[in-house]
Write a structure and sequence with these properties.
Strand order of the largest sheet: 5-10-7-8
Strand content: 25-35%
Number of helices: 1
Structural class: mainly beta
Radius of gyration: 21 Å
Order of helices and strands: EEEEEEEEEEHE
Helix content: under 10%
Largest sheet: 4 strands, antiparallel
Shape: elongated
Distance between the termini: 60 Å
Number of strands: 11
Length: 196
């Protein structure tokens, strides 16, 4: 295995190139010294692919190229922490606003015909786009990702856990689950276009 090749999210998480992984089942072996002071940290396989999660099992699938509105964790991106662009066309000729009331991201932003149009973060989750000229316009809504399903305690099944700190990853008994406990992500329902 070759040495580090840059980093992922944080400079302390080195990227190590892997050889091409063939289709089918593969085993990745890692030699790591574990002591009372050195624990095993998460490891990530990065690349252009999807992931299907079923209970406590996950498998690599074909890359996800198109998403519908809804929870993207069930659409092949269960551990994805990046941003997602939703692109669609709208017809101009009048004043237009967009309302996105159901999303599970820290922030949405929008561009109209490649120009920044604004952000959506607080109720009533409405963004006024102004009067659009007649014709078709491209509206892009960017859902900003977060690291809840990539770095979070995805096996903590205590739904009443209110504070996330080191003990969130050290659950046991009824608070531990081998099955993945993922948080919904993405724009969950189609945005509403409001014409004025």
């Amino acid at each position: 295995m070759r040495g580090p090749d840059g980093w992922f999210v944080d400079e302390d998480i080195a990227r190590i190139p892997l050889p091409k992984i063939p289709k089918g089942e593969s085993i990745l072996e890692v030699d790591q010294i574990i002591t009372r002071r050195i624990g095993l940290e998460w490891m990530y396989i990065l690349g252009d692919f999807g992931v299907a999660v079923s209970g406590s099992h996950a498998k690599i699938t074909a890359p996800v190229k198109v998403l519908d509105f809804g929870d993207w964790t069930g659409m092949g991106l269960p551990f994805y922490a990046g941003n997602v662009d939703y692109r669609f066309n709208v017809e101009g000729g009048s004043s237009l606003a967009i309302q996105v009331t159901q999303f599970r991201n820290p922030l949405l932003s929008a561009t109209l015909d490649g120009r920044f149009a604004g952000r959506i973060a607080y109720a009533p989750y409405l963004l006024n786009l102004g009067k659009l000229s007649t014709g078709r316009h491209e509206l892009v809504i960017t859902a900003f990702g977060n690291r809840a399903n990539a770095f979070g305690p995805v096996h903590n099944c205590d739904e009443h856990y209110l504070w996330f700190g080191p003990d969130s990853w050290r659950t046991k008994g009824y608070s531990w689950s081998y099955e993945y406990r993922l948080r919904p992500m993405g724009i969950l329902t189609a945005p509403r276009l409001l014409r004025g």
